[in-house]
TrEMBL record:
The lineage of its organism: Bacteria, Bacillati, Bacillota, Bacilli, Bacillales. It is found in: Cell membrane. One of its GO terms (cellular component) is plasma membrane. This is histidine kinase. One of its GO terms (molecular function) is ATP binding. It is a multi-pass membrane protein. Residues 41-258 form the Histidine kinase domain. It is an enzyme of class 2 (transferase). Its EC number is 2.7.13.3. One of its GO terms (biological process) is regulation of DNA-templated transcription. The chain holds residues 224 to 482 of 482 of the full protein.
C-alpha cells in the first residue's frame, strides 16, 4: 500500500486537519508482474525456434548441405521451427486483438449443430492420424446468440486439445445440451486428464502442464487463453471437469438466442 499525508491549513495559517490518501497498489503491482512475465515468456518462446533455425542453417552453410541425408533432416527441422514461429505470431496477434478493450463480436442467431459439424470436418484429418473417432450427441440443435466463426474457433481449439492430450485409438464425445439461459457444448476426451490444482491455471497465457509435450505437439500455450476470451466475449462461461488418467470434459455455455 502507498500512503500519503498532507496538512490542511486554513486562513491565517490555522490548522484544519490532515488529509491522508491511501492507494491500494497491490493489484497494480500484480498486473505489472503479469505484464513482465508475459514479455519474458514471449521472448523465450520466440528465441527458441529462432536459435534452432539459425544453428541448423549455419551448419548447412558450413558444408553439411553436401550430405543429402543431413540436408533433408536439417531442412525439415528448419521448416517445422518456422511453422512454430508462424503459429506463435498468429496466436499472439489474435490474443492481442481480442484482449483489446472494446473488442466486440457480431452477434446473430447461430446453430450450435452447424458449428459443431464444421468443427468436426476441420479436425477429422488429425483424428484419423491418431486413429481416433468422434461420438456425437448433437441431434437436438440449440440456437445461441453468437458469432459462428468465433464459436468455430472455440470448438476447434477444444477438439484439437482433446486430440493432442489423448492416446491413439480413443474417442472424443461431443454433446449439445441446454438450460433456459444457455446452449451447452461438451467436448469430452479419454486423454491424460488434468490435476485439480492445474485446472485454474490452464487458461493463463503460456501455462502448460507439460511444456515438452505441448511444444512437441505444436502447441503455442495460448489456445485456451484465446478460448476463454472468446467465450467471455459471448457472455458465456467455460468449465473443466477432469480426472487424471481418465480424461477431461470441457463445458462451454453460450447464451441462448431469444426471440
Ligand atoms: P497448448 O498449446 O499447450 O495446448 P492450451 O492453452 O491450449 O496450450 O492449453 C494449455 C495446457 O492445458 C496444455 O499445455 C495442457 O497441459 C493442458 N490441456 C489443455 N487441454 C487439455 C486436455 N483436453 N487434456 C489434458 N490437458 C489439457
Amino acid at each position: 500500500k502507498q500512503i500519503y499525508g498532507a496538512p490542511v491549513v486554513g486562513e491565517h495559517g490555522r490548522w484544519l486537519g490532515v488529509v491522508i490518501v491511501m492507494h491500494d497498489i497491490s493489484e497494480l503491482v500484480r498486473l505489472e508482474q503479469v505484464r513482465k512475465d508475459f514479455v519474458a515468456n514471449v521472448s523465450h518462446e520466440l528465441r527458441t525456434p529462432i536459435t534452432s533455425i539459425k544453428g541448423f542453417s549455419e551448419t548447412l552453410l558450413d558444408g553439411a548441405f553436401k550430405d543429402e541425408k543431413m540436408l533433408l533432416s536439417f531442412l525439415d527441422i528448419i521448416y517445422q521451427e518456422s511453422n512454430r514461429l508462424q503459429m506463435l505470431i498468429q496466436d499472439l496477434l489474435e490474443l492481442s486483438k481480442i484482449e483489446r478493450q472494446g473488442y466486440t463480436i457480431s452477434f446473430s442467431p447461430t446453430s450450435l449443430q452447424e458449428v459443431l459439424i464444421r468443427a468436426v470436418e476441420l479436425t477429422s484429418p488429425r483424428m484419423d492420424e491418431k486413429n481416433m473417432q468422434f461420438a456425437v450427441d448433437i441431434k437436438r440443435d440449440v440456437m445461441v446468440n453468437g458469432d459462428a466463426n468465433r464459436l468455430m474457433q472455440i470448438f476447434t481449439n477444444l477438439i484439437t486439445n482433446a486430440i493432442t492430450y489423448s492416446p491413439e485409438d480413443t474417442t472424443i464425445t461431443l454433446r449439445i445440451k441446454y438450460t433456459d439461459e444457455y446452449g451447452i457444448v461438451e467436448v469430452q476426451d479419454q486423454g491424460i486428464g488434468i490435476e485439480k490444482t492445474e485446472i485454474a491455471r490452464i487458461f493463463e497465457r503460456f501455462y502448460r502442464v507439460d511444456k515438452a509435450r505441448s511444444r512437441n505437439s505444436g502447441g503455442t500455450g495460448l489456445g485456451l487463453a484465446i478460448v476463454k476470451h472468446l467465450v467471455e466475449a459471448h457472455h458465456g462461461k467455460i468449465y473443466v471437469e477432469s480426472t487424471v488418467g481418465k480424461g477431461s470434459c470441457m463445458k462451454v455455455f453460450i447464451p441462448i438466442h431469444k426471440l
